[in-house]
Amino acid sequence: MNKEAILMDKMKVLQADITKLDVDAIVNAANKQLKGGGGVDGAIHRAGGPEIMEECREIGSCETGEAVITTAGQLPCEKVIHTVGPVWNGGEKGEAEQLAGCYRNSLTLAADYRLSTVAFPNISTGIYGYPKDEAAEIAIQEVRNFLEGHEEIEEVLFVCFDEENKKIYEEKLENPPE
Ligand code: AR6
User: Fold this and answer.
1) Catalytic residue list contains 41
2) 165's torsion region: left (phi>0), alpha (psi -120 to 50) or beta?
3) pLDDT for residue 178
4) Is 7 strand, coil or helix?
5) What range(s) does the Macro domain occupy (predicted)?
6) CA 4 – ligand 1 centroid, Å
7) What number is the average pLDDT over the span 139-163?
8) 3-174: which CATH topology?
9) Whose Cα sits closest to atom 20 in ligand 1?
10) Catalytic entry in 24, 41, 112, 162
11) 30: pLDDT confidence band, cut at 50, 70 and 90?
12) Using an 8 Å Cβ cutoff, are 115 and 24 in contact?
């Protein structure tokens, strides 16, 4: 396999409930106050138990595009990385750069903690309203670029909850830009 194929081979699409995955780290699409909520955030706190929220409270808050790390409580993974995606506001408010930051900063934390398999939900594409196709483009591009400089990350899963996102990711990963 050439270098590009090796990078692309580390990215996988999966339709699943992220809370069930036995990977090193799962990423949570949190809010700035780290106070829990609906969507994947609600599912992670429900399944993981109160320990995760205790650590979130100690950390306090997280800026949009940044990431923090906590225990995984009762989840099968080792750690939860909480990142705050941008609220979609038409696309002229720096949303793309903030969304890219979510992927980059989450993977930076994973590498720092020697977590080599990481599962991402489709950050910002639920309650925060980011257009799914554009969000997937940014996610794949940013992860690909990170993997290029970080061989220690072995696998990145894009965990799609809905069929629409799954199709978008499959299509983009099968047809990467030249
Ligand atoms: N596993 C994987 N993906 C899931 C799961 C699950 N168990 N549940 C939902 N998704 P969202 P956001 C998908 O709304 O847009 C929260 O209230 C979902 O289908 O969870 O970043 C936070 O506290 C969608 O594709 O996150 C924030 O306030 C994706 O996860 C706010 O929502 C993200 O949808 C963040 O909004």
Assistant:
1) yes
2) alpha
3) 64
4) helix
5) 1-177
6) 30
7) 97
8) Leucine Aminopeptidase, subunit E; domain 1 (3.40.220)
9) 39
10) 41
11) very high
12) yes
Return the ∠ at Cα 63 (arms to 80 and 106), rounded to 5°. 35
Mean pLDDT of the chain: 97
Q: How far is the CA of 2 from the centre of ligand 1 (A)?
A: 35
ipTM confidence: 0.98
User: Tens of pLDDT along 108-119?
Assistant: 999 999 999 999
Q: Report which protein residue has its CA nearest ligand 1's atom 10.
A: 40
What's the pLDDT tens digit per position in 5-19? Answer: 999 999 999 999 999
Nearest CA to ligand 1 atom 4: 40
124 Cα: distance to centroid of ligand 1 (angstroms): 7
Q: Which atom of ligand 1 is nearest to the CA of 130?
A: 15
Report yes or no: 173 and 28 within 8 Å, Cβ to Cβ: no
